[in-house]
Amino acid sequence: MDKPTERMLDRLCDRLAGLLANDPDWQETASQIEGLLDSVDLQVSVLKTSPREFARSLLEANPRMTVLAERAIKFKADPDQFSDPMTLIENLTPSNQHNG
Q: From CA 67, how far away is CA 27, in angstroms rounded?
């Protein structure tokens, strides 16, 4: 993995963890994110012990998630612009037509 992709994954992980930490129903939101990824054939194995662990296990421990970082770079997405965890992931999934 190249450095820009690695840095973007770190930024996405930090942002997702922060958004989930502020979500009182973060585990439900995490399940919805898993469902979204399953629907686009990006099945992942994650931990749900905390928002940080979920984000880390989703984005940094799953090699398949580099596609999200690559799309964020391609479309010049700023993870900090997203205020909702589902929207963050949804806008970077390969099936999303809003990004081009």
A: 23
What token pair was written down for 26?
């973060």
Q: Could you read off the pLDDT of 73-84 as tens digits, one per residue?
A: 999 999 999 999
Distances in whole angstroms, Cα of residue 98 to Cα of each of 14, 20, 91, 92: 23, 23, 7, 9
How many Cβ atoms are within 10 Å of 78's Cβ, its own excluded? 9
Q: Which two tokens mark 37?
A: 């990824």
Please state the pTM of the whole predicted model: 0.90
In this structure, what DSSP letter does residue 86 have?
H
Q: How far is CA 12 from CA 1, 83, 84, in A?
A: 15, 12, 12
